[in-house]
Amino acid sequence: LKSIGRDKIQEFYGDMAHPNVRGHERIADRLATYLVDAAGITTPKPKPLPRPVAEKGISWDFEDGAKGWNLDCDQVTCEGDLAVSGTQSLRFAMPVPGKNRDHRRAYSPVFPVRPGELYQATAQLQAVKPLSSGSVGFFVCLYPTANGEGDPKIVSIQRGPGAVGKWLPKTNRLEIPAGIQSLRVMIWASGDTAGEFRCDDISLVPLQE
């Protein structure tokens, strides 16, 4: 914690209990360093390979009505009465917990990526009605195929519905792991969630480091 700083600790966590990819890498690196030092090994640490730089990012403001998105139930819609920019945003309206405790999800179109690329992932969320139960979050689904098929590795960017009546950014760095060729953004509400929130202006912005 001291070496990271309290102002940057969130970059290493999907939430305050679970490290993200960068967090796990840092834990592994510190553990490996400790074991090497304990064994008295003096061989210099290999330099990391150059990081591939993403050629482009992507963003969604939903002014096209969530074109290409998969909204997986009738409680997830695109509405034109509240937005950060423009007029439209995703709406999760859940007066009661989901039928059979089903999760509610909104999936973005597939976006191609390469291992090692680094992005700043951001989504604007606002709670319209406080959640009386359940949880929500901003996630990325990572796929081993170029077309978004196969079992995804799901990475938490940040949880929480935002403040009531106020847009708040949910954001974190995302490094693409080895073996990953594509991703989808996923906005998620657990099966026991009751309440209402909005999501707008989702983006993946390439980073150098």
Tell me the series of helices and strands, N- to C-terminal.
HEEEEEEEEEEEE
- Structural class call reads mainly beta
Helix count from the secondary structure assignment:
1
Q: Note poorly predicted spans.
A: none
Number of strand elements: 12
Mean pLDDT equals: 88
What is the CA-CA span between the terminal residues? 20 Å
- Give the C-alpha Rg: 19 Å
The main pleated sheet reads as: 6 strands, antiparallel
Write up what this structure looks like:
- 9% of the residues lie in helices and 39% in strands.
- The chain has one helix at residues 21-38; strands spanning 58-60, 70-71, 76-79, 89-94, 104-107, 111-112, 118-133, 136-143, 153-159, 168-175, 182-189, 194-206.
- Strands 1, 3, 4, 7, 10 and 12 form a six-stranded antiparallel β-sheet that branches.
- The chain has 209 residues and is mainly beta.
- It is built from one helix and twelve strands; from the N terminus they run H-E-E-E-E-E-E-E-E-E-E-E-E.
- The longest helix has 18 residues, at 21-38.
- The radius of gyration is 19 Å and the shape is elongated.
- The model has no long low-confidence stretch (mean pLDDT 88).
List the helices and strands and how they pair.
Blueprint: H1 21-38, E1 58-60, E2 70-71, E3 76-79, E4 89-94, E5 104-107, E6 111-112, E7 118-133, E8 136-143, E9 153-159, E10 168-175, E11 182-189, E12 194-206
Antiparallel strand pairs: 1-12, 2-5, 3-4, 4-12, 5-11, 6-11, 7-10, 7-12, 8-9, 8-11
Which terms summarize this structure?
12 strands, about 10% helix, about 40% strand, mainly beta, about 210 residues
